[in-house]
From TrEMBL:
GO molecular function terms noted in the UniProt entry: SH3 domain binding
Pfam families: ELMO_ARM (PF11841), ELMO_CED12 (PF04727), PH_12 (PF16457)
PANTHER family per record: ENGULFMENT AND CELL MOTILITY (PTHR12771), ENGULFMENT AND CELL MOTILITY PROTEIN 3 (PTHR12771:SF16)
Chain's gene name: Elmo3
UniProt protein name: ELMO3 protein
Domain annotation ELMO: ranges: 284-457
SUPFAM superfamilies: ARM repeat, PH domain-like
Task performed by this protein: Involved in cytoskeletal rearrangements required for phagocytosis of apoptotic cells and cell motility. Acts in association with DOCK1 and CRK. Was initially proposed to be required in complex with DOCK1 to activate Rac Rho small GTPases. May enhance the guanine nucleotide exchange factor (GEF) activity of DOCK1.
Keyword tags: Apoptosis, Phagocytosis, SH3-binding
Gene Ontology terms describing biological process: actin filament organization; apoptotic process; cell motility; phagocytosis
Length: 696
């Protein structure tokens, strides 16, 4: 195939060679992979060794299928729709079919047809693929079409594949406009989505969860709050905890992401209270504040406070608020003016006092009887702890587009944030006693508590009970041991000879890291395709040939983890690679908005520029770890320095280990900064033994 020759001329030559008339009715198409049509715009992407076939041109195929889907013969119609669903993935064909008003015919089949089986599934699949190219706006869909799609979701007798596709269509409609969101929200009830969530079909369950998440993200704050309240009434958390998180099937990436979003949306309901300062003139808020004092001290008062004079009552209240740990005891509302944590801290304190009154009274009274400097201030600790929990759980932060880090125990408990607070505030008191802290140590204690919480959360406990057991076992002495161990790992002797040895060892260890990176590229990685509009199910695999000369890549099916190199049809010779781009420089990141939600995707994006600096292979790494290994490996292939943070970490670990091994014999021996002086040569060398005399 001469790339300099116009495609029309190439087709004419091929048709002439095979005595085929009307060369304009034919086109070239890849034999392997996605079988894309070759056009003038994408012909530059053809690789050496690619096999092409002569086939009917996209416009002829579009015309034929447009007629086929209108056939009265159901077999012809079904076959045409099946082929349409397959070909619609190709952008050239999709454009031709849409130009012939093909979507109108698809709408007609859906709106007027009564079929709920295979034919309808192919029709909806074709519609989804055509809409994927963004030639037509979702807002142009007719009310009759939408109602029909909704009816498939709400019917019980429809084929599961039709319901999955219908849920996907609605999920794509929801974010595009307020009108479509309102329509779907009204027509597809939460009850219906919960019914779909309870099926055994994992794909149907996933699509139902996707639509639920899309509705939650598109809703206003008030609507979202109402929806979450309703879901709480229906015990959705317990259902997810039991049937999805702890099901026999492993949790897929997409479901993990949706559970993360559901957790994030739920926790963000606390944001309004977190950002609202206390209003000292609000009767309701003042009553909540007074209830804290009354729960702790009213029972122990010998006489009711109402019998005292105003001055005496005020003095008594101030004293009790001081015992509660408020800094400003004459006007405790001032302590809650800081937002965040705002009123959320007050809510947590009230929840603790009402739901665990014994623990609350014990905390307050125990500290009231301690010496002044050793008492743990309940209110001040609660305010700071609420802020720490908000930071750890990312309350008030937008959802990430790709994150999957949810806490299984979140779904095992209603009032998760408040219950977590109840455990952690008792942990503050316990740690305070273990550290024998005074008021000056307040920040130090809360720092240790933050560490206890984050270390325990990183273990992903499955229930709050397990979290409580583990966080209490991680006492202050354990934290000190862990810190000491980590410090020993990080510490390095800074004597000049050791630094010189370190520099001498470095090239050898850098070469070791280079070899490891190339081995990782040879093993290969599974990458996920993410479009600008929505998460994709499509996967592709990329790996380096064992001789480090060619990058092989290609699409793979779900469940394939390490495809053989022969099954990957696409190739890029390493010698053709020109440049590595990362982050915002990548072509597939330039259209992305600058919102916080895309920040994590930007940090995982990289591209290879190859041939004449026109073509790019775009990647989005599954994790930051994979991003570091791939960018390092590609830099090695390009003959450049490895620049990722992982290189420095690995080098530090290897240097530290190597140095410790080399210095084992010098344990407990101090190494001088400068080498000892070399003594002067002796005045004569007569002390040397002369062997020659002995031999004689």
């Amino acid at each position: 195939l001469l790339q300099t020759k116009p495609l029309a001329s190439v087709l004419k030559d091929v048709c002439d060679a095979w005595s085929l008339p009307n060369a304009e009715h034919y086109a070239l198409q890849y034999v392997d992979g996605r079988q894309t049509y070759i056009t003038e715009s994408n012909r530059g992407e053809i690789k050496n060794g690619s096999i092409l076939r002569l086939t009917t041109s996209p416009d002829q195929e579009a015309e034929r299928l447009y007629s086929g889907i209108q056939s009265n013969n159901s077999d012809v119609k079904t076959d045409s729709l099946k082929k349409l669903a397959n070909l619609s993935q190709d952008v050239t064909f999709a454009q031709e079919f849409i130009n012939r008003n093909g979507l109108k015919q698809i709408f007609y089949i859906v709106e007027e047809g009564n079929d709920t089986g295979e034919m309808l599934a192919h029709t909806l699949k074709a519609f989804m693929e055509l809409m994927e190219h963004d030639f037509v706006s979702w807002e142009t869909l007719s009310a009759a079409f939408i109602k029909k799609i909704v009816s498939y979701v709400n019917m019980n007798t429809v084929d599961a594949s039709v319901q999955q596709l219908s849920l996907s269509i609605l999920e794509n409609m929801v974010p595009t406009s307020c009108l479509l969101f309102e329509l779907v929200k009204k027509e597809v009830t939460l009850d219906r989505l919960l019914t779909h969530l309870q099926v055994t079909n994992a794909q149907l369950q996933l699509k139902a969860m996707a639509l639920l998440i899309a509705l939650l993200l598109a809703a206003t704050d008030a609507e979202r709050r109402d929806m979450m309240d309703y879901l709480r009434e229906k015990n959705i958390r317990q259902f997810i905890h039991k049937n999805i998180i702890h099901s026999s099937e492993p949790l897929g990436d997409e479901m993990a992401h949706y559970l993360y979003v559901l957790q994030s949306v739920s926790l963000n309901l606390c944001e309004r209270r977190m950002r609202t300062s206390m209003d000292p003139y609000s009767q309701e808020q003042r009553e909540l504040l007074q209830s804290l004092r009354q729960t702790a001290f009213e029972s122990e008062s010998e006489a009711p406070a109402s019998n005292f004079s105003t001055e005496r009552r005020r003095s008594l209240c101030a004293k009790e608020f001081r015992k509660l740990g408020f800094t400003n005891n004459s006007n405790p509302a001032e302590d809650l003016r800081r937002a965040p944590p705002g009123l959320l801290a007050l809510d947590n304190m009230v929840y603790f006092s009402r739901h665990t009154p014994n623990a609350y009274s014990r905390f307050v009274l125990e500290n009231s009887s301690r010496e002044d400097k050793h008492e743990c201030p309940f209110a001040r600790s609660s305010i700071q702890l609420t802020l720490i929990l908000c930071e750890i759980l990312h309350v008030g932060e937008p959802c990430s587009e790709t994150a999957q880090a949810f806490y299984p125990m979140f779904f095992g408990q209603d009032h998760f944030f408040e219950e977590l607070f109840c455990i952690c505030i008792q942990l503050v008191n316990k740690t305070w006693k273990e550290m024998r802290a005074t008021q000056e140590d307040f920040d130090k204690v809360l720092q240790v508590v933050r560490e206890q919480i984050t270390r325990t959360l990183s273990l992903k406990p499955t229930s709050l009970e397990l979290f409580k057991t583990r966080v209490n076992a991680l006492n202050y002495s354990e934290i000190l041991k862990l810190r000491q161990t980590e410090r020993l790992h990080q510490e390095e002797t800074l004597a000049v000879p050791v630094l010189e040895l370190r520099e001498r060892l470095k090239p050898e260890l850098v070469e070791l890291i280079r070899q490891q990176r190339l081995l990782h590229l040879c093993k290969g990685t599974l990458f996920r395709k993410i479009s600008s509009r929505r998460r994709q199910d499509k996967l592709w695999y990329c790996r380096l040939s064992p001789n480090h000369k060619v990058l092989h890549y290609g699409d793979v099916e779900e469940g394939v983890h390490s495809p053989p190199i022969e099954s990957l049809p696409e190739k890029i010779p390493v010698v053709d690679m020109k440049m590595l781009l990362m982050g915002k420089e990548c072509p597939h990141m330039k259209e992305k908005s600058s919102g916080k939600q895309n920040k994590d995707v930007l940090e995982l994006a990289f591209s290879i520029v190859y041939d004449v600096e026109e073509y790019c292979l775009n990647f989005i790494a599954p994790t930051r770890y994979e991003f570091c290994l791939w960018t390092d490996g590609l830099n090695v292939l390009l003959g450049k320095e490895m620049t990722s943070e992982r290189t420095q970490t690995d080098l530090d670990v290897l240097l530290s280990m190597e140095l410790k091994l080399r210095l084992l014999d010098l344990e407990n021996i101090s190494i001088p900064d400068t080498p000892p002086p070399v003594p002067k040569p002796p005045s004569n060398l007569n002390f040397c033994y002369d062997f020659s005399h002995t031999e004689q």
